[in-house]
Amino acid sequence: MSEKKALEEGRFAGLALAEEELVARVAWCYYHDGLTQNDIGERLGLPRLKISRLLEKGRQSGVIRVQINSRYEGCLALETELQRVFGLRIARVLPALNTPPMNARLGVGAAQTLMGVLEPGQLLAVGFGEATMSCIQHLSGFISSQQVRLVTLSGGVGPYMTGIGQLDAACSISMIPAPLRVSSPEVAEILKKESSVRDVILAASAADVAVVGIGSVNQKRDATILRSGYISEGEQLMFARKGAVGDILGYFLQANGERVEGLEIHRELLGVTLDELAQLPTIIGVAGGTEKADAIYAALKGCRINGLVTEETTARAVLALAQ
pLDDT digit string (tens) for 129-146? Predict the structure, then answer.
């Protein structure tokens, strides 16, 4: 190749440089000097496509090693591992911090996640729980501006009001006008036939996205379903003895993610069933705290959810259970 041709290819005689040196120069300009690929191309007299290929070759060969110095680095690795191990579509892991309260932080993380998932005018189905209600509070402006419609996945108006009660009056909200749990399976069957209940359950069963809380029997008195009065401490203890580790929408799960059989409560619930929930395209569980690790693992193991928002310590505990 003539000297003239070489100079045309590179103002710095790029072709005459050892390839490793050329990669190093390009990487320095890109990562250290903050130049764009076009800027580097002009500086070195090389086409932008060549610069892009050199950067990629540098990453593959190990000449370029990107180190992320951030408290989020471990979280990003955990997200990737959760998706790999459990086949999740979505994983969001928040850094482990003591303040503010975890449910508030999880609510913010879930709201940010949903903003990236929901399309204008879609239907969002919501389960009860402190973290999910915190999520709805932080989604308020987005719900209004994007005309997202809301529907509840279960009965129990009271537990929903901390989140839904904060929304703009113009928001479209459909709530099951009944308790989460009624006095008997017979009453549940009668109420399910009422159009005001049936129509909301049918709508929830056709939602575009669902966000649900995950309760744990390890929470004991702190469990939302117990504090809301839908189960007693005695029942909670009995469920645990039958193998329950946690619940979604009041349905109690074993460690393998299967529903605990023979529990009367499952026939007394008003709302979407776990089988109906599983038909939705995107189901995001929101839960955190090491005391919930068993319950979260069960939800993942049983494919009850295909998205998860949690925090770092919890994610590590869940992954440890998968070993």
Answer: 999 999 999 998 899 999
Question: Distance between alpha carbon 259 and the CA centroid of its chain, in Å?
Answer: 22
Q: Which two tokens stand for residue 247?
A: 């619940």
Beta strand 246-248 with 215-216 is antiparallel
Residues 55, 24 contacting (CB under 8 angstroms): no
Q: What's the CA gap between 219 and 215, in Å, rounded?
A: 8
pTM of the model: 0.79
Structure tokens at 233: 């401490």
Question: 136 — phi, psi (to 5°)?
Answer: -65, -40
Verify cis geometry, omega within 30 degrees of 0, for the bond prior to 100: yes
Among the listed residues 114, 140, 136, 116, the one whose alpha carbon sits nearest the alpha carbon of residue 127? 136
Instruction: Give the CA angle between residues 98, 103, 242 to the nearest 5°.
Output: 110
| Helix, strand, coil percentages, rounded to 5, for the chain | 50, 15, 35
Instruction: Please answer whether residues 117 and 89 qualify as being in contact, where contact means their C-beta atoms are separated by less than 8 angstroms.
Output: no
Query: Is the separation of the CB atoms in 294 and 215 below 8 Å?
Result: no
Q: How many CA atoms lie within 13 A of 316 on its CB side?
A: 7
Read off the pLDDT of residues 162-213 as tens digits, 9 standing for 90 and up. 888 888 877 899 999 999 999 999 999 999 999 999 999 999 999 999 999 9
Coil, helix or strand for 311? strand
Host H or E run for residue 54: helix 48-61
Q: Round to whole Å and give the CA distance between 68 and 106.
A: 23
Tokens of 272: 């979407």
219: nearest Cα among 202, 199, 236:
236
Q: Could you tell me how far CA 18 lies from the centroid of its own chain?
A: 47
Using alpha carbons, list the distances in angstroms from residue 212 to 67, 108, 189: 35, 14, 24
